[in-house]
Write a structure and sequence with these properties.
With 366 residues, the protein is an all-alpha fold. The chain is 72% helix and 0% strand.
Length: 366
């Protein structure tokens, strides 16, 4: 499987380099007054296209190279890529034009999710809650629709946390490592290869994205991460009855809860959930915790603050990933840690909003 990681890394790294050099014109479309803009200059947002190319090349290679022994037929990997393509291309179109509405992008991700569930015969009929599981088994196509919503919804959660150099990409790498670890314990080399190819491609992107921020993943990158990781999680739970359905929930609770909390926050203020703002958790950390030494160059200072924000959120994601990996087959424990994470997140958010950040944390940031 190491060969697949190398292939995905190299293809993605060179593809991203090409986009970085050839696609600067579209970066000017991203207005300087956008609330989620925390960088200086015009930076291309086509890193997601490079990630998709790198991962796709490795997926196809898995069916062509017998020595990797992942038992993934070329036809299956090619069909999966074709099913995911509408969502990814929709995200890339938004990155280039800034004119694809939220509704259209949501429709594309849900449509791609329905396609991949139908082609791969995926269904999610276990939630760990007996009453809900009974409904999913009793209602026709309920499990398929539930799986499609999960696969089609996660890309938008990754898009929300994709705010600073290396943030969403590193979270994706950590999650892929966790999924591959559990999959290999269960002997599922094909599923492990799926996410490890995504890991390699993301690594090729991060070479250019962190710490210098020379290119961004954009919506296309967030959709690749979300679709593939959600697909892997649904497949893992469906194939292996010993895996708790709360393993992926805890594993991904950071981007998922960030999304739900953002929707609640906007509705409470009378705003549309699709309206962009600058009040996400990572943005508050950037503004109220992260400090840097004073530079004469304002752009350098902004870049330094940008880079120092991401590690805080990597640590936050680790609070859920570590117990998820340790207790991947124990539903009760996973539920408890999920609730604990939510409580910790809300408490930390309110603390930062009310300017009650602990002094040790401010000192650490300085």
């Amino acid at each position: 499987m190491l060969a697949l990681i190398v292939i995905s890394f190299l293809v993605a790294a060179f593809a991203v380099l090409g986009f970085m050099r050839r696609a600067r014109r579209h970066a000017r479309r991203y207005g300087k007054d956008m609330p989620q803009r925390f960088h200086a200059g015009h930076v291309p947002r086509l890193g997601g296209a490079g990630i998709f190319l790198g991962m796709g090349a490795a997926w196809l290679a898995a069916g062509l190279i017998d020595r990797v022994n992942v038992y993934w037929p070329l036809k299956a990997s090619a069909l999966t890529l074709l099913c995911l393509a509408p969502a990814v291309l929709g995200g890339i179109a938004e990155d280039i034009t800034q004119r694809v509405s939220v509704r259209w992008r949501l429709a594309l991700t849900i449509g791609s999710a329905l396609l991949v569930c139908a082609v791969l015969d995926l269904s999610l009929e276990r939630t760990g809650v007996p009453m809900v599981d009974g409904w999913l088994r009793a209602l026709p196509y309920a499990g398929l629709l539930f799986a499609a919503v999960a696969i089609g919804g996660l890309p938008h959660a990754f898009n929300i946390i994709d705010g600073y150099n290396g943030l969403a990409g590193t979270v994706a790498v950590i999650v892929c490592l966790a999924i591959s670890h559990v999959a290999l314990q269960l002997g599922d080399r094909q599923l492990a290869a799926m996410v490890l190819c995504l890991l390699g491609a993301t690594g090729g992107f991060l070479v250019w994205n962190y710490p210098r921020g020379k290119i961004f993943a954009g919506d296309g990158g967030a959709y690749v991460w979300g679709m593939v990781i959600a697909l892997a999680c649904v497949t893992l739970v469906q194939r292996h009855g010993t895996v708790s359905p709360w393993f992926p929930m805890l594993l991904l609770i950071y981007p998922v809860w960030e999304t739900f909390f953002s929707v609640y926050r906007k509705l409470a203020r009378g705003q549309s959930p699709g309206m962009a703002d600058a009040l996400h958790f990572h943005q508050l950390i950037f503004r109220r915790i992260v400090r840097v030494a004073v530079h004469d160059d304002e752009a350098r200072q902004l870049l330094a603050r940008n880079n120092r924000t991401s590690p805080y959120l990597w640590a936050l994601a680790g609070l859920s990933v570590v117990p998820a990996v340790l207790f991947w087959n124990q539903t009760g424990v996973l539920m408890l840690f999920t609730l604990l994470f939510i409580a910790t997140y809300v408490a930390a958010y309110l603390m930062i909003v009310r300017f009650k950040v602990p002094r040790w944390l401010r000192d650490f940031a300085g």
